[in-house]
Specification:
Blueprint (H helix, E strand, L loop, with lengths): L1 E5 L3 H5 L5 H8 L4 E5 L13 E3 L7 E3 L1 H14 L4 E11 L2 H7 L4 E6 L7 H7 L2 E4 L9 H12 L32 E2 L2 E2 L2 H5 L2 H19 L1 H4 L7 H4 L7
Parallel strand pairs: 1-2, 1-6, 5-6, 5-7
Antiparallel strand pairs: 3-4, 8-9
Helix pairs in contact: 3-5, 4-6
The protein binds adenine.
The site of adenine has 11 residues, from strand 5.
Length: 241
């Protein structure tokens, strides 16, 4: 799987691949990362890539020409490249998208800076457009890394045995149950006693009940998609049906 970051700021992205799981995936050649800088494609003699907005409005907008040239070249080199734009004005990125996109052979993330990208570029080249949440970042680079990370861990071989993909939050409507590490008692804080007794069926039902509680607290809207089955869960009252 190849990821191409189309960005004016390669430095903002590189560091993320210099440690941990994605570093290992790069070393094992399970993923490959490259960069395309629109500034390298500008015909402007001052290397400008942005301008004021036509029709008024605050801030600078990225010009179409450098991005058209860069993305045309990208598509010429790989007709299968899947081009994704990052902007707050888009559908929210979800775990299902991460799983679906993990099957692609090549994804390019196009990051805007300033007030955004000339819409004609998006219209012409976007296979998909995503937002990572209802807030405005200074550019799409962080958002593109978020997608890249979430997609990569669904690519076969990226996670080791210790970093399992099983039963994660968002795979079901419920949030994941809390996890605990050793020691079993830290200072005067113990892990839930059921976790210590080794009865796996009891541990499973406690975890389900805790999942239902967490979901009720943090994401009550998600509970509507789930039938509470545990004693604890059945105490959860829905305020709206
Ligand atoms: N660029 C700026 N803010 C963003 C957001 N919330 N999601 C994706 N791209 C962005």
């Amino acid at each position: 799987m190849t990821f191409t970051f189309v960005t004016l700021f390669q430095n903002l992205i590189e560091g993320y691949f210099q440690d941990s799981i994605l570093k290992r995936a790069l070393e094992k050649k399970i993923i490959n990362v490259d960069y395309l800088n629109p500034r390298d494609y500008t015909l402007n003699k001052h290397k400008k890539v942005d301008d004021t907005a036509v029709g008024g409005g605050a801030g600078m907008v990225m010009n179409p020409q450098p991005l058209f040239y860069a993305l045309e070249e990208l598509k010429k080199n790989d007709e299968n490249v899947h081009i994704v734009f990052l902007t707050p004005v888009a559908k929210p990125f979800k775990q299902n998208d991460a799983k679906r996109l993990a099957a692609k052979s090549h994804i390019a993330f196009v990051s805007g800076r300033y007030e955004g990208i000339d819409e004609r570029v998006v219209e012409e080249f976007a296979d998909e457009v995503f937002s990572i949440g209802d807030y405005i970042l200074t550019g799409g680079e962080l958002a593109s890394l978020v997608l890249c990370d979430a997609i990569s861990r669904n690519v076969d071989g990226v996670l080791g045995n210790a970093e399992s993909l099983e039963i994660e939050s968002f795979e079901t409507p419920l949030l994941e149950a809390p996890s605990f590490s050793k020691p079993k008692i830290y200072e005067d804080l113990s892990v839930p006693s059921e976790y210590l007794k080794g009865n796996h069926s009891k541990i499973r039902s406690l975890k389900l009940a805790l999942s239902e509680c967490k979901t009720k607290f943090f994401r009550p809207e998600q509970l509507k998609k789930h039938n509470c089955t545990t004693a604890l869960g059945s105490q959860i009252k829905r305020t709206k049906s």
